[in-house]
Every structure is written in C-alpha cells, then in structure tokens.
Write a structure and sequence with these properties.
Elements: H1 14-22, H2 25-36, H3 43-71, H4 81-102, H5 107-116, H6 118-135, H7 139-145, H8 147-153, H9 156-171, H10 176-193, H11 196-200, H12 204-227, H13 232-238, H14 248-283
Helix pairs in contact: 2-3, 3-4, 3-9, 3-10, 4-6, 5-6, 6-9, 7-8, 9-10, 10-12, 10-14, 12-13, 12-14
C-alpha cells in the first residue's frame, strides 16, 4: 500500500506529510467559503477560478522545487516534487469539472466551447499534457520508459507556459497576477539554463533577480500593447516607482532578493558548520 507520507522503505517523512496536508488547504478554504455563502452570487464561477488559480500555482511550485533543493543543499525536498505536480493536476481536473458543472454538464456545449474559444483550447491542451505526465509518473512507468521518461517530462516547461497564457487570456483586464506568475516562470527557466557551477554560486542570483524583474515589466508592457487598448507606456511607468504600490516587476524582484538572502544564509551556515567541526574536535 502506497502511503504519501512515507518513503519506499516505509519510513515517515515529515516534509512529505506536511506537503500532503498542505495540498488540501486551498480546497478546504473554498469549500468553507461555499458553505458559508461567501462565494455568492456565483459560487461555481468562484470555484472554477479558484481551482484554476491553484493549478498554476502548484505547477509553478513543482518547477521551483529543484532550484530550492539545490540552493539550500536539501536533496530530500526532491521527494515531494511528484506529489506537488500531481496536486496541480488534481486541481486542474477539478477546474475542468466545475467548468462542466457551470455548463450544466452539457458535454456537447463544453466540447464546442473548448474548440471555439482559444483560451479554453489552451487550457484543455495544457490539462491533457499534464494528464499524460501524471499517468507516466509512477515508478513502474519510469522503469518501463527509461530515458524517454525524462524527455517526456521536459514537456512540463512549455505546458506551464501554455497554462500561464490561458491564465492571461481568462483574466482579460487586470493581469497583475498572471504577469507575476510569468516573471517567476522566467526566473525558473533562466536558472535552468545556467551551468551547474553558476547555480551553486552566489554572484549570479542578484543579476537573476534584476533580469527576471525587467523581463516581468517587459511581459506586462507587451501584453497591454498587443492585447488591450491600454497605453502600455503608462503601465510601464508604474513599474518605475512605488507611487502606485507594488507592481508585478517589483514583486518578482523581491522574490529574487529573498532567494539571494536564502543562498547567502545557506552559505554562511555551511561555513559556520565546517569551521565549528574542527573547533569541537580540538576542544574534545
């Protein structure tokens, strides 16, 4: 019997138990709001949007696990990567289920909408792609597919990009959160292109924070320029100061600075631990 909070040997793993429990938290909040009447007047619509939002969040978190594990020298964190990805898939399927419910389970209408509305087509293709990754994520499939398994699962990167584009088009007006998601995605993808030695260093991370922030501002500018009638230069100007509050580019930069602090802190702790070892031996 597979128990999510244990390893293959049956040992209890706190990090897996914590992640497994956390996977249910968004769903429980939305269920509470639904039952309390806080999701009125359109509870199904709120459920659709909520499930979709957490789908992209969990997929983004799954992409962030490898960088965090390597930066913090915490290989055990990689054990929850599959669980987080499958959680994102579960929320994606729930997203589609509530959309079907909103259409009163008229499957013909659902199919027609998916085929004729571009953003729904994008979302459905993304979900099908992640279903393929989910079905092949078992230990048995990994062994049977061999090297092709890793090649197939590289598809997670463009699939998250497609899901983010679906998010952009669905939101339509205020795209601040999709822009923020896109900026984090840029950071994660640029990190993956870096040589292994650079990933383990410190100096590259401040530059990565700046680069991701600039890319975020550029994505926001391009969206308003290409997809709306809003003056993109005015939008870009809001990112040049804090007069209008934190913009997506600022938030991505702050996230990048947090990463810098974590990397520097991990290095300091590591050096302290190495120096404390010989001192303890001498005093003994």
């Amino acid at each position: 019997m597979i128990v999510p909070w244990r390893d293959r040997r049956g040992n209890f793993l706190p990090v897996k138990a914590a992640v497994f429990a956390s996977a249910f938290v968004p769903a429980m909040f939305y269920a509470y709001w639904w039952m309390a009447g806080d999701a009125q007047p359109r509870p199904v619509t709120e459920a659709i949007h909520g499930a979709g939002l957490w789908t992209i969040r969990f997929f983004l978190i799954s992409l962030a696990i490898t960088p965090v594990a390597r930066m913090l020298q915490w290989p055990g964190l990689l054990l929850v990567r599959r669980m987080v990805g499958l959680t994102g898939l579960a929320y994606g399927v729930t997203h589609l289920f509530f959309y079907t419910m909103d259409q009163k389970f008229a499957l013909g209408t659902v199919v027609s909408e998916i085929l004729t509305r571009f953003y729904l087509t994008l979302g459905f293709v993304t979900l099908l792609g992640f279903l393929a990754l989910g079905v092949t994520s078992t230990n048995g499939m990994i062994k049977r597919m061999g090297r092709w398994w890793k090649r197939l699962h590289y598809a997670a990167y463009p699939l998250v990009a497609l899901g983010t584009l679906h998010y952009f088009i669905q939101v339509k007006a205020n795209v601040s959160e999709p822009v923020f998601v896109a900026g984090l995605y840029v950071w994660l993808m640029v990190w993956r292109t870096l040589p292994m030695g650079w990933q383990r260093g410190v100096a590259v991370y401040p530059a990565l924070a700046v680069l991701a922030a600039l890319a975020t501002a550029g994505i926001e500018f391009a969206w308003y320029r290409l997809a709306t009638n809003v003056n993109p230069w005015r939008v870009l100007a809001t990112s040049e100061s804090l007069d209008f509050g934190l913009r997506p580019a600022h938030c991505v930069f702050i996230a990048g600075v947090v990463v810098v602090v974590l990397v520097v802190g991990r290095g300091v702790v590591g050096r302290f631990g190495r120096s404390a070892g010989p001192m303890a031996a001498r005093s003994a």
